[in-house]
Amino acid sequence: MVLYFSATGNCKYVAVKIAQSTGEEMASIVDCIRQENYTFHDSCIGIISPTYNWALPSITREFLQKAELKADYLYYVATYGTSPGASSEYAEKYLGRKFKHSIL
User: Fold this and answer.
1) Could you tell me where the beta strands, DSSP code E, fall in the chain?
2) So what's the pLDDT on residue 95?
3) pLDDT recorded at residue 39
């Protein structure tokens, strides 16, 4: 499962490429919030989000604070212009658990 937030399309592009190469399903974090869907169980779950001000967008933060993600492998991918800042650390903080891998 690939969960993504994309304001400009960059993260959606990354999510599509990852989902196509792994055969995983993908879902927009915005749609998940609208549908109040915060529970995901899969062998592998990825979070794709842009970096805003060296951190996370508020919508990604809100989702991660409420999310119940059960996976053997959990990863995070940040898109950014010049620096990922501390986006993966914030993502771990809001999710309340460590990622197996962060890709910045």
Assistant:
1) 2-4, 26-28, 39-41, 44-50, 68-70, 73-79, 101-103
2) 84
3) 97
**Cβ–Cβ contacts within 10 Å for residue 88, how many?**
23
Q: Name residues whose C-beta falls within 8 Å of residue 67's C-beta, 6 or more positions apart in sequence.
A: 38, 39, 40, 95
Confirm if 2 and 23 have CB atoms less than 8 A apart. no
**Helix, strand, or coil (residue 51):** coil
Asked if 13 and 44 count as a contact pair (C-beta separation under 8 A), the reply is no
Alpha carbon of residue 39 to chain centroid: 14
CA-closest candidate to residue 68, choices 46, 88, 40, 89: 40
Task: State residue 101's pLDDT score.
Answer: 65
Distances (CA, A) of 63 to 17, 23, 25, 93: 22, 24, 18, 12
Q: Which two tokens stand for residue 98?
A: 């460590």
Q: What is the pLDDT of residue 92?
A: 87
pLDDT < 70 stretches in the chain: 101-104
